[in-house]
Specification:
Carbamate kinase, nine-stranded mixed sheet, globular, 11 strands, 19% strand, alpha/beta, 244 residues, 39% helix, two-stranded antiparallel ribbon
Length: 244
């Protein structure tokens, strides 16, 4: 496909990609599987080459999940801060994978960790994007009790993203869990209100409400599908589009 055709076919110019930490585990029980993070980095690099400005928010569930330990008796605030640090580790891993391909990337953290990454400042993040750098936004919102889904919605709105891309392990939004119900119906498009009313659980309710109230469309798709990120930039039928 020629560069001219690619540019004319782009649906979005600036996107925020939400990755779950679990997506980086591959076949492992925890941690980061190198071949998985390499494949994800290759696809991110391809999207960046199209001229799309891309920011990333990643979870830390492959390393540490604060809410889980809180249920086991750990102080919730302590657990959540530990989870934020896990997202920084994942962000650094993605940065390293991208830079090994010659892609300029910056990690910006909501927690101050100057030795390894920049502080998150909205104007600076936007400037990085304008210069063609991939921006990886770590440590959630910097506050306990808020998920990385909520952080992704917040950051996408702050940087003026055209869409929030939610990469999952299923092909989109379904009326029931497709892993439990073989007859689950996949939606091509669905409204934010239906997601909330039917408790479809694609993201936490706070994140969904933020997207709805700020007119930020959300596209949900399976990260394991081949060339999925590039296709999401040019095809209307990728996964499920959630809008008002």
């Amino acid at each position: 496909m020629s560069e001219a055709i690619i540019q004319s076919d782009l649906l979005y110019r600036r996107v925020l990609l939400k990755l779950s930490g679990e997506a980086l585990m591959g076949g492992l029980e925890y941690g980061i599987e190198p071949k998985i993070i390499h494949r994800v980095a290759v696809e991110i690099a391809e999207v960046q080459k199209l001229g799309v400005e891309i920011a990333i928010v990643i979870g830390g569930g492959n390393i540490f999940r604060g809410a889980g330990l809180a249920r086991a008796g750990m102080d919730r605030v302590t657990g959540d801060y530990m989870g934020m640090l896990a997202t920084v580790m994942n962000a650094l891993a993605i940065q390293d994978a991208l830079e090994s391909m010659g892609v300029f990337a910056r990690v910006m953290s909501a927690l101050k960790i100057h030795e390894v990454c920049e502080d998150y400042i909205r104007r600076r993040a936007v400037r990085h994007l304008e210069k063609g750098r991939v921006v990886i936004l770590a440590a959630g919102t910097g506050n306990p009790f808020f998920t990385t889904d909520t952080a992704a919605s917040l950051r996408a709105i702050e940087i003026g993203a055209d869409v929030l891309l939610k990469a999952t392990m299923v092909g989109g939004v379904y009326d029931s869990d497709p892993n439990l119900n073989a007859k689950a119906l996949k939606y091509d498009t669905v409204s934010f209100d239906k997601v909330l009313t039917d408790k479809l659980q694609i993201m936490d309710a706070t994140a969904v409400v933020m997207c709805r109230d700020n007119n930020l469309p959300l596209r949900v798709f399976n990260l394991n599908d081949e060339n999925i990120l590039v296709r999401a930039m040019t095809c209307e039928d990728v996964g499920t589009l959630v809008t008002a």
